[in-house]
Amino acid sequence: MRYSLLDLAPVTDTGSAGEALRNSADLAQHAEKWGYHRFWMAEHHNMTGIASAATAVALGYVAGKTDKIRVGSAGIMLPNHAPFVVAEQFGTLDALYPGRVDLGLGRAPGTDGATLRALRRKPNDAEQFPNDVQELLGYLAEADDADGIKAVPGFKQNIPVWLLGSSTFGAQLAAHLGLPYAFASHFAPDYLHHALRAYRDNFKPSRYLDKPYVAAAMNVFAADKEADARYMMTSMQQQFVSLRRGMPGPLKAPVEDINQVASPHELAAANHALSYTAVGNKEQVEHTLNHFIDETGIDEIILTCHAFDHQQRLRSLEIAAESLNQN
Question: Which CATH class is domain 2-220+276-325?
């Protein structure tokens, strides 16, 4: 069982984007020592609590600070970009760090309508996602010497391309194209099992994979004491509540009583979104992670920890690695 990390470079309400990105590199260095297989970062725009908007740039920084851990996107929101430019960006990363780069692709814009216009995109651009994925593959491993347009770097480079999703759409497309698939169960729990079934049942072997390969994401808040882990998690709960209120912002400090800052209805909605979360001490986290792996039959688990305190985040993911290393 491979275990990997998803990092959003969280910006706290007392920190800065630069600090967040430096923390990401530090986390990747620790993750490399703890046996994590991949370190993925996600594209979000107009989010003052997330510093990984320029995802390829951030990944280049992280890759330069590490030695062997794979680095990649989870994901690049393809409707925001010309496939040719993405091929060049990740071709460049692969040229600099050969054999270490993954390219995960998402269909959602990862932002609001006004920001979408600022990106010079249109709301219906997502409808071209299947065609854009195939165009992108054509600039990478499927490129041909006779092609009139070549991505340099990128041309004929065998960069693993993943499709990401929070519904069955991406699962079905990944199955059709024979690509690996990752599900965003860390914030979208409802369609997890439907998507995994759709991917496995419809998978077609390809030049990339001869059988399905699927990963799923899970939040983890681990500490030496359960109370400390639950306290750490309140930052993430506040983040979801703020998002639902239409007031996203920097990551807030944890609170002793989450019920004092969120209504029962808001908290229930946040906790539902965070259904797939391992929280507690090492024994509790190990039990939850193992149950999730057994329940889903996934090939790889992706962990994420959106914690306010960087040292606590490091300890949380170290405990998770220790738990998974025992299997």
Answer: alpha beta
SS (H, E, C) the chain: CEEEEEECCECECCCCHHHHHHHHHHHHHHHHHHCCCEEEECCCCCCCCECCCCHHHHHHHHHHCCCCCEEEEEEEEHHHCCHHHHHHHHHHHHHHCCCCEEEEEECCCCCCHHHHHHCCCCHHHHHHHHHHHHHHHHHCCCCCCCCCCCCCCCCCCCCCEEEEECCHHHHHHHHHHCCCEEECCCCCCCCHHHHHHHHHHHCCCCCCCCCCCEEEEEEEEECCCHHHHHHHHHHHHHHHHHHHCCCCCCECCCCCCHHHCCCHHHHHHHHHHCCCEEEECHHHHHHHHHHHHHHHCCCEEEEECCCCCHHHHHHHHHHHHHHHHCC
How do the pLDDT tens digits run along the chain, 327 residues long? 899 999 999 999 999 999 999 999 999 999 999 999 999 999 998 889 999 999 999 999 999 999 999 999 998 999 999 999 999 999 999 999 999 999 999 998 766 778 878 887 777 788 899 999 999 999 999 999 999 999 999 999 999 999 999 999 999 999 999 999 999 999 999 999 999 999 999 999 999 999 999 999 999 999 999 999 999 999 999 999 999 998 889 999 999 999 999 999 999 999 999 999 999 999 999 999 999 999 999 999 999 999 999 999 999 999 999 999 865
